[in-house]
Amino acid sequence: AEGKAYKGWVKGYNRGALVNDGFVDALEGLFHEFKGEKLMPFSKDLITRIVIERGDDLIDLKRTGRGWFMEYPFKMKADENAVKGLINPLTAERVTSVEDWIDSYRRLPEKVWLLIEGIKGLPDIDMDGYLYGSSMIVHPFKYQKVFYVTDALWKALNRPASEFVRREVFPLKEKDIKKISLLRDDKEAAVIRKGHGWGYKDTPLGDSAEKLVKRVLSLRALKLAKPFKLDKRPLLTIKVERIDNSLIELSLFDLDVSYMVKEGQLVRINPYTNRREREYFYPATISTYPYIYIIGSFQLEHLMDLLKEPSDIR
């Protein structure tokens, strides 16, 4: 019940303590993590295909001799690390059977259907949007019982398709970089390596130089599936200079191309605000790739946070 409290004892103290039900739920989660049975007791290397269906959204990933590929909604090579980020929670997940009738739990809006191929006799998994404490209900079709799983697995299964195929804009390690510049309207802001850290070359912007470097290196882009002509001046250019003086340059254009992205991919959880929001997409060119890419507004807002407003670039 709401507001319920429990009496407990803290080792090392000679008096009792009251803890709320959230604390107890957390302890129960730890218990199930160590005591529960594995949802999928097999090696991750055996998985050859993963299909995730969420309402009208569908993600189809297949393993080939050349790695993981996305068959739908984007027909292109998948990001290996992103796929690992899905497989690892799946194969590590430990579950506990829930005996109570499922309708007694609070219903969530999403429902996920999961198909995994590669292991003979493996059941399809039907994940319903029911909340059980801080966990989610899972119902394997071929089992006559219901399990609950952690919200970590639920979040992994609810990642948008674009996150599985996005390419690193700057595939570099921080130690290999000596300067990052941001240019807008012939004005430049730059961070440079200073000893073992980072500092602004001239006027500080928004937040720490270290955060700016990390956010620039975390940028991901999605290859545009259709030919597209860009004849505008870039809104923003980001240049990353390596220790060996070579450059990787990203030019971002102020042109909304969200209509080229499947409608089901536009409204999703913003990872930076943790709210369900509409994402917009903008075209970009990257000096190291012969394609046009698109970058989501969530990433750009996250970066611009540190810059305050683009007009702050002097």
Provide keyphrases for this structure.
single chain, 314 residues, alpha+beta, Immunoglobulin-like, eleven-stranded antiparallel β-sheet, nine-stranded antiparallel β-sheet, disordered N terminus, disordered C terminus
Please tell me about this protein's structure.
The chain is α+β, with helices and mostly antiparallel strands. The protein has three domains: 1-35, no CATH class; 37-159, Immunoglobulin-like (Sandwich); 167-312. Helices cover 18% and strands 39% of the residues. The chain contains five helices and 24 strands. The strands form four sheets. Strands 3, 4, 5, 6, 7, 8, 9, 10, 11, 12 and 13 form an eleven-stranded antiparallel beta sheet that branches. α2 (80-92) runs antiparallel to α3 (151-157) and α4 packs antiparallel against α5 (297-307). It is globular and about 60 Å long. The model is unreliable at 1-14, 30-34 and 309-314 (pLDDT under 50).
Give the SSE map:
Layout: E1 5-9, E2 16-20, H1 21-35, E3 37-38, E4 49-54, E5 57-64, E6 67-72, E7 76-77, H2 80-92, E8 94-98, E9 106-107, E10 112-117, E11 125-132, E12 135-140, E13 146-150, H3 151-157, E14 167-168, E15 177-184, E16 187-194, E17 197-200, H4 209-217, E18 220-223, E19 236-242, E20 247-252, E21 267-270, E22 275-278, E23 281-286, E24 292-296, H5 297-307
Antiparallel strand pairs: 1-2, 3-8, 4-5, 4-10, 5-6, 6-7, 8-13, 9-11, 10-11, 11-12, 12-13, 14-18, 15-16, 15-19, 16-17, 18-24, 19-20, 20-23, 21-22, 23-24
